[in-house]
Fold:
Amino acid sequence: MAAVKKKVRGLTTAFGRPVGDDQNSETAGARGPVLMQDTHLLEKLGHFDRERIPERVVHAKGAGAHGYFEVTADVTRYTKAKFLSKVGKRTDVFVRFSTVGGERGSADAERDPRGFAVKFYTEEGNYDLVGNNTPVFFIRDPLKFPDFIHTQKRNPRTNLKDPDMFWDFLSLTPESVHQVTILFSDRGTPATFRNMNGYSSHTYLWYNGKGERFWVQYHLKTDQGIRNLTRQEADAMRSKDPDHATRDLHDAIERGDYPSWTLEMQIMPADEAEDYRWDVFDITKVWPHGDYPTVKVGKLVLNRNPVNYFAEVEQAAFAPSNFVPGIGPSPDKLLQGRFFSYHDTHLHRLGPNYHLIPVNAPRNAPEASYQRDGPMRVDSGGGAGPNYWPNSMGGPGPDMTAKDPAFDVSGKAYRQPYAHPNDDFAQPGALYRKVMTETDREHLVGNIVAHLGGAQKRIQLRQAALFFKVDPDYGRRVAKGLGLSVKEVERLSKMSQEARVKATS
Structure:
């Protein structure tokens, strides 16, 4: 039996007018010039001129896929979030993976943290979990974030990546050394997006129907196994296939080899945070699993590729401020800054109605608000209903059951660092000594030396001193690899940060 031939739709303009010729412009005579009355040409060129939206300032290079999240354990004692309300419940998701510092054309194999953002399309609205493939970050105060990102980008004078900028900032910011140690291990170059974990990094709030509060951290553990590239393998991959991770994700899903991750949670009763040995709201720290073992909660599966990259991946917008009842924020300073910055950058990049773009729109909880108008309003704009509250016209009103539980705040209002007893070197020291193998340590030092070697000697000394404070063996190896005096590095390590900066300026 012959296959039924699919009818091909006729080409039209954006407004549905049939197009008779899409190969030849209207001209005055066979040789031109072109006529202004060729509205099809003007529409086509005008749209082409505007096809690109502003590139993301960070996380510009990315790949994404659709899938679902399935609950595998009862967590109702911790949270009243409906999408987590019963075992077996599934929620549609969209996930975007990315590098952080590179431009859209950069290579997937760059040494860089990887973004791991999940959008849950729940019946109570969209919930966004915006994390990375590392459990910590470089800085803990949002005021430092623009400066940090500038140092990871290009020198404004040369338009080149600059090791001096990169390491100058990090060596002046000791809290970064934990993340730096992870980044310059082989974990800084994951083999694929499928072979890496995802972490919330930040601490978040879960609360149940009784108003009981818990601090939590999310761990998305890859079911494909962790696999990383060595520096040499990553260097080769950047030239061989700069889009290798994007290609790997697409091809795996296309052939039915659906990647999955197991969601594990660290859960802490809220009152235990006050006296815990680490500040649980400091993103440069982890919660030791010996204190708070992870609890398996669910399964994340990606099983459908985007139909159109621009529409679904490039226009995807995630914000850590998108919560649902049962999940809320923590006092983490960097997280609080992200609440503003993510929404603000989406307004700049996509416009005030970016929430109406299909990939961002709430699928299972249609918008019911009094926000109206603005560029690219593509729905009925609220129709004929009122655009104000309170009203007596039958418009939507607040639901008191959706309110977050109260929490206490106290203290003076001024610019202040984290007051909790803090040690920026103990946790990366434990990582270096207890978690890493000897091969891991060799690769870590080699990766650092290869990159830090491009910076000025005074910056090398300052950074090597920070590594020495993490672990003397760590500092000595880096110093020897760079050809620095180990005695000088050790001397600098014993100074205060202020004195060390002065001595190396």
Summary: Residues 333-350 form the longest helix (18 residues). The chain is about 30% helix and 15% strand. Residues 62-138+195-364 form a domain with the Catalase HpII,  Chain A, domain 1 fold (CATH 2.40.180.10).
